[in-house]
Specification:
single chain, alpha/beta, Purple Acid Phosphatase, chain A, domain 2, five-stranded mixed β-sheet, 43% helix
Length: 314
């Protein structure tokens, strides 16, 4: 059985379509989706509709599905969540709400488990080294190649005693997760870890593209192949600028544009900058009010690249 393993679409319909087209050409027989279907790109409703039409697909829920339930308000921070919630049909929202947080099933005697975050399997061991806010510092000089990242991941985790202890407690099989937007995989004494990366918002400091992973189970043997389909980031940004999301949540959209252009985390630092700015002016309003959100973002535009040059390597 050949599976296309896909995660963290984040409303990016063009990327999802590219992945599904490539997966079909590669002979994919079934699909495994590891969560985060909405928020950041403006096509979450279309993404959900397309996903629901796929045959032989399994789905779990991601953390961003929870962000569709933010309360009404007039802040700037959660404008994108409210816009996304308004754009999703009731049927698609109900479908997202009903998705399980984890799945486990068998394929040819191999157990496959799915959870949105690696924390379900190994605690914070992977995030300690490869969370998206930390990865740019590892590759601060230039974009990282797939081979270098995989070698770094396997070497680093192979020397982490907490990780190895947690892995040894797991049953043998395949463990699928997403969440940190870093495409990687490895095998540890019959225990496979597979992170397909982010289909719609890759943040692994590599080349921009639509990202997913092929998982093949044949005669009880596991084979993994990473896939990355290049496409035009500026054309994608131009598309988003024509949507009402861009008008309703311009700052968030611009931060995502910057992440697409560099495949490097920005949201964490923009939020940290907003917190620091709000504290400096004695503004205790949370979520951040529109005036504070705008002023903090303007400050980020002035100082962000100088303060964090590793986030802007292209």
């Amino acid at each position: 059985m050949k599976y296309a393993v896909i995660s963290d679409i984040h409303g990016n319909l063009p990327a999802l379509k590219l992945v599904l087209e490539d997966a079909k050409r590669q002979g994919t027989q079934a699909y495994l989706f590891a969560g985060d279907y909405c928020i950041s790109a403006p096509w979450a409703n279309e993404v959900a509709t397309l996903l629901r039409s796929l045959p032989d697909a399994r789905f779990i829920r991601g953390n961003d599905e929870n962000h569709l339930d933010v309360p009404d308000g007039d802040d700037g921070q959660f404008e994108v969540s409210r816009w996304c919630s308004r754009s999703i049909s009731a049927d698609n929202k109900a479908w997202l709400d009903a998705l399980p947080e984890e799945l486990s099933f068998q394929c040819e005697g191999v157990t496959i488990r799915m959870a949105h975050s690696s924390e379900a399997y190994v605690g914070k061991a992977i995030h300690k080294h490869f969370r998206t806010s930390a990865v740019p510092a590892r590759y601060s000089e230039a974009p990282v190649t797939r081979q270098h990242l995989l070698e770094d991941f396997r070497s680093t985790m192979g020397q982490d005693s907490d990780f190895l202890t947690a892995m040894a407690k797991l049953d043998k099989g395949v463990y699928i997760f997403g969440h940190n937007h870093v495409q990687c995989f490895g095998c540890y004494d019959g225990r496979w870890l597979v992170n397909p990366g982010s289909c719609g918002l890759p943040l692994d400091c590599g080349d921009f593209g639509a990202v997913y992973t092929l998982l093949t189970i044949a005669n009880g043997q596991v084979t993994v192949e990473e896939r990355r389909i290049p496409y035009d980031v500026e054309a994608l940004i131009a598309q988003v600028k024509t949507t009402s999301q861009y008008q309703a949540a311009r700052i968030w959209s611009e931060v995502i544009f910057s992440e697409w252009r560099t495949c490097r985390e920005k949201v964490y630092y923009v939020l940290w900058n907003a917190e620091h700015y709000a504290e400096s002016i004695g503004d205790s309003r949370r979520p951040f009010a529109k005036d504070t959100w705008q002023a903090a973002y303007d400050l980020w535009l002035q100082n962000g690249q100088q303060a964090h040059p590793e986030l802007f390597v292209r």
